[in-house]
Write a structure and sequence with these properties.
This protein is α/β, with parallel strands linked by helices and 504 residues long. It has helices at residues 30-38, 42-48, 86-102, 121-137, 167-192, 200-213, 224-230, 233-239, 293-308, 353-363, 380-386, 398-411, 444-453, 484-493, 497-501; strands at residues 5-6, 17-23, 27-28, 59-63, 72-77, 107-110, 156-160, 217-222, 247-254, 263-267, 269-273, 313-323, 334-337, 343-346, 371-376, 391-395, 415-417, 435-436, 461-465, 471-472, 478-479. The strands form four sheets. Strands 8, 9, 10, 11, 12, 15, 16, 17 and 19 form a nine-stranded mixed β-sheet that branches. Strands 1, 2, 3, 4, 5, 6 and 7 form a seven-stranded mixed β-sheet that branches. Strands 13-14-18 form a three-stranded mixed β-sheet, covered by helices on one side. It binds ligand BES, manganese (II) ion and zinc ion. Ligand BES binds at residues 273, 291, 348, 350-353, 377-381, 383, 438, 444, 467. Ligand BES binds next to α11.
């Protein structure tokens, strides 16, 4: 998919399809008015007939509009002018792109960013157009012939802006949007693959291939024997029940100054979670192939950062394993010793994410990190609390929490902060070990975060529970690529990029 910025007289733009927004009450937007004028009132006459009122995402394709160089004009309902927020804007763009992609329109020129939703500004509108388009045209075809794939998919969407002086800023927006889209697509591809293909070994090989493709990215994979030497007894205890060997994938991107402390992203890479001996019920168990979406999000974010050449030092750590029942698997009541030296009583083998993460988090100490963010499909409780709309955010420090919340808001990939109070810690008390791996029925997402907090005392840390946001269920079942947009936005915020492109 290609995106180019266009300026200049709209009526004279040669394109197979010109996309124009219409607000409710049949009100044309700026670019729409220009085309209406050039066509001597043709658009107004069409709208008066009442085929399109402007309701969000309604579409009307016009052919042979007089006085206009483009072959077609696609009118897109954008709702009430005052209510045009990110949500409505996304809906409108997705509807337009959906139609273009399924018809014969391989190229189009889109003027929707000129509507500049207040929530987004022009930079944000352009970027949102790019990411929404990439999201809409994404297709999974790795394990089947995609018979429903459009014959002539949309290949190029140009974006028209009225003011030439905005060019630099919106070109930055296209670049950022395209890189985020690339990272999201990688995270979706890996997430959507089934557990029998996307094993820890597959994830590790994919990471190594990424390292081959990007000069500034070095990738290293630790094997089970390496983890044994490091004393990663918690991580290895999960993998014991699987025939697939665990891997610890480490990606190292150096875009910042030598010696600048790295930002470390840790992603849960559980390639299939059957629950272990505490076996999950079979309903929707297939969705536990998505339990590696944290790991996929780390790979996707590193890809986006490397493609943008962000001036930060960034390390990705992905502990990867399966969680299956087996004669050699963890039993409830087993006690394991983590790399930190703390012992854990495994009261439920299905609370395995925290077991593989705690050793990865201890491993992070060696990087002397500026901060560590982990992302994990950690608890069903988080889905109960926040649904599919917000990731759960946990952090000890308000400043880091606010920075991440703000990044999520800006990227349209929102998180919501949850408490991490000392009061909850006692739920992890064990009579036989330093802690239990579960904290009872109450506040399950919080006690999981409390568990991780015991392994992250040596650096600033935040935890994103993405159990609700990393994939969709039902008819739209599939990975979302979240929280790659949030994390990339966070990194952009920490980069000089911001000043250079006016992203702020
Ligand atoms: N991967 C799951 C969390 C999960 C469950 C994500 C459902 C999305 C949907 C995790 O490993 C898990 O099984 N967590 C348990 C923890 C419990 C045993 C304390 C859970 O949430 O039920
Ligand atoms: Mn589990
Ligand atoms: Zn899990």
């Amino acid at each position: 998919m290609e995106f180019k910025i266009k300026t200049g007289e709209l009526a004279k733009q040669k394109t197979p399809c010109l996309v124009l927004g219409v607000f409710e009450g049949r009100k044309l937007s700026g670019p729409g008015e220009a085309i209406d004028k050039a066509s001597e009132g043709h658009l107004a006459r069409v709208l008066r007939r009442g085929d399109l009122d402007g309701e969000t995402a309604r579409l009307l394709m016009l052919y042979d509009v007089p006085g206009v160089s483009s072959e077609r004009v696609l009118l897109v309902g954008c709702g009430k002018r005052k209510e045009l927020d990110r949500r409505a804007y996304r809906k409108a763009v997705a509807a337009a792109v959906g139609l273009l992609n399924e018809t014969q329109t391989v190229e189009a020129l889109c003027t929707l960013p000129e509507l500049v939703p207040d929530e987004l500004g022009l930079y944000g509108a352009v970027r949102e157009t790019v990411t929404t388009t990439l999201d809409k045209v994404y297709r999974y075809d790795q394990t089947r012939e995609d018979k429903k794939a459009p014959k002539h998919p949309l290949k190029r969407l140009d974006l028209w802006v009225s003011k030439k002086q905005d060019r630099d800023s919106v070109e930055g927006a296209v670049r950022h949007g395209a890189a985020i889209g690339r990272g999201v697509a990688l995270a979706k591809d890996l997430g959507n693959l089934p557990g029998n293909i996307c094993t820890p070994t597959y994830l590790a090989e994919h990471a190594l291939a990424l390292g081959q493709q990007h000069q500034n990215l070095r990738v290293q994979v630790l094997e089970e024997r390496d983890m044994e030497e490091l004393g990663m007894g918690a991580l290895l205890s999960v993998s014991r029940g699987s025939r697939q060997p665990a891997k610890l994938i480490i990606l190292d991107y150096r875009g910042g100054e030598d010696g600048a402390k790295p930002i470390v992203l840790v992603g849960k890479g559980l390639t299939f979670d059957a629950g272990g001996i505490s076996l999950k019920p079979s309903e929707a168990m297939d969705e536990m192939k998505f339990d590696m979406c944290g790991g996929a999000g780390v790979l996707g974010t590193l890809l986006a950062a490397a493609e943008l050449g962000l001036p930060v030092n960034l390390i990705g750590v992905v502990p990867s394993s399966e969680n299956l029942p087996d004669g050699n698997a963890n039993r409830p009541g087993d006690i394991v010793t983590s790399m930190s030296g703390q012992t854990v009583e495994i009261l439920n083998t299905d609370a395995e994410g925290r077991l593989i993460l705690c050793d990865a988090l201890t491993y992070c100490e060696r990087f002397n990190p500026a901060l560590v963010i982990d992302l994990a499909t950690l608890t069903g409780a988080c889905v109960v609390a926040l649904g599919k709309h917000a990731s759960g955010l946990f952090a000890r420090e308000d400043k880091l929490a606010d920075e991440l919340l703000e990044a999520g808001n800006r990227a349209g990939d929102r998180a919501w902060r949850m408490p991490l109070w000392e009061d909850y810690q006692q739920q992890l008390d064990s009579n036989f070990a330093d802690m239990a791996n579960i904290g009872g029925r109450d506040a399950g997402a919080i006690t999981a975060a409390c568990f991780l907090s015991r392994y992250t005392k040596k650096y600033p840390w935040a935890h994103l529970d993405i159990a609700g946001t990393a994939w969709l269920t039902g008819k739209e079942k599939g990975a979302t690529g979240r929280p790659v947009p949030l994390l990339t936005q966070f990194l952009l915020g920490r980069s000089r990029e911001l000043a250079e492109t006016g992203a702020d």
